[in-house]
Amino acid sequence: MSLGTSLRVTKQRQVLLDELCKVRSHPTADELYQMVRRRLPRISLGTVYRNLELMAENGMIQKLAVGGTQKRFDGNAAPHYHVRCLKCDRVDDLDLSLELDVEQKARKHTDFTIVRHSLEFAGLCPECC
Amino acid sequence: MSLGTSLRVTKQRQVLLDELCKVRSHPTADELYQMVRRRLPRISLGTVYRNLELMAENGMIQKLAVGGTQKRFDGNAAPHYHVRCLKCDRVDDLDLSLELDVEQKARKHTDFTIVRHSLEFAGLCPECC
DNA sequence: GTGTCTGCAAACCATTTGCATCGGT
DNA sequence: ACCGATGCAAATGGTTTGCAGACAC
Known about the structure:
Chain A is of the alpha+beta class. The first copy, chain A, is 30% helix and 21% strand.
């Protein structure tokens, strides 16, 4: 869990990362579990959760706390925003790098030491409306 | 649950709203339960959840999906942003009305019909750092 | 009186964890 | 050989729900 910890290369880890990186969707842990299971039928849900957590901590992937109840994961570790469909729950990327100054602005309105921010959009995807 | 539905005025509802509105913090359902229980010892957690949900739907209060595992509630129904302390989990308001154009900007980068957005800041409160 | 609201307890569901075994280094 | 990783199943914890009685209107 600390900085010096290097993760071992296990089959489970490899396949999990591979499956996550090859989709454009932003799957939940359970969706990923189903995907990986096709290649590793004996993998457990617990392993999926543990590895997603570890890989997120190590900056290899992103854990998204988007709207719904389940967390979602993104194989693209670079910072970017997301839009979520209110009807079908689909989550898309959003290339909106322009406003990196929100944190600067926010700093002027609080005595908190701002470390990061999260911005999520919600609406209707082209299919749903 | 629909527009025509007007909520009945019950003691539970009154006290709950009153307690929520008189604090500046952004309590979780359980914290609110503890607060209300001092005045209505027989109220149940279920009632607290049901009413918070209903009042949020009716725009009387706000349900916040901020960072952590538990949802938080805000007696101030007017749209505004929040900062959350990464250490003690305290949540403060943020008067940052300046950038109402984020949605406009976002619209240019997606084919979703954007309805709303949520923006949350995280950092360290003055007490924690 | 009618239909909503409440308290209670059980159900839910995403996620976490304990433990014995397995496997990467 | 060591220690992290895994599978399995049970535990957790926030939230939801079914039901019978109580209460607002």
